[in-house]
Specification:
mainly alpha; globular
């Protein structure tokens, strides 16, 4: 029997969970290291949405999402144990996924070269806080706007409009990208809305959405994080 290719096996939930675990740990440890007074300002907006949603089901506290993420990892592991050759994880694949994410992030940088700051906005000048925000955006925004919304929109479009897979994917990616853009204008710390910013973020959202569709959550999360870290380095070194 032919073994699954790199492109197939790394597009599974199990590999995405394992690949993303370091980002989750960095984010949670970073929050722990930051002053408690800064947490309300520094928690990523999508992070807050996820935690508030989980609190509706009685899952509360700082580690509520982390625990839920771990449970999801265990479920994905058990469901794909046989399909992944008795759960053997190939370290070289995880390393290749990192380099692939760097490549996608580089393409996103080229795409957004005239407005590189538009995927990461923060008025906080402290390095640790900005790094934590960059990592948090990669995890939580991709989980909410790609995993949850694209999956949800695709289901609704298929159920109500009877669209095929291609139509569902295109429609759900665009709708999720639009909400991704609007999200950055919401709340007391949101940006002043402009059509230019709105369309710039839609383009970025579509790009990340297509990565999620074809390469999975893990690579989309790392692409987003690496892009934000590039923006952080660029503006830190140029100031």
């Amino acid at each position: 029997m032919k073994s699954p290719s790199y492109w197939t096996i790394t597009n599974t939930p199990l590999y995405s969970f394992i690949f993303t675990l370091p980002l989750l740990l960095i984010y949670e440890v970073g929050l722990f290291a930051i002053s408690a007074n800064d947490l309300p300002l520094l928690r990523n907006g999508a992070d807050v949405l996820m935690r508030q949603f989980l609190e509706m089901f009685g899952i509360a506290g700082t580690y509520g999402f982390g625990g839920t993420f771990l449970i999801g990892f265990i479920i994905a592991f058990l469901r794909q144990k046989k399909a992944l050759e008795a759960s053997q994880i190939k370290g070289e694949y995880l390393l290749t996924m990192l380099f692939e994410s760097i490549g996608w992030a580089f393409l996103l940088i080229i795409l957004m070269i005239r407005a590189p700051e538009f995927l990461m906005s923060t008025k906080d000048e402290r390095l640790l806080q900005q790094v934590v925000l960059a990592v948090g955006a990669g995890i939580y925004e991709e989980f909410v706007f790609r995993v949850i919304l694209i999956t949800g929109f695709a289901y609704v479009l298929g159920l109500i409009l009877k669209w095929g897979n291609i139509g569902k994917n295109i429609g759900s990616v665009f709708l999720a990208a639009a909400l991704f853009s609007v999200f950055h204008f919401a709340g007391p710390y949101g940006e002043d809305p402009t059509w230019y910013l709105f369309f710039i973020r839609i383009i970025a959202g579509i790009f990340l959405g297509m990565i999620y569709i074809f390469r999975g959550f893990g690579i989309a999360a790392y692409t987003h994080t690496i892009y934000d870290l590039f923006v952080l380095v660029k503006f830190t070194t140029s100031s």
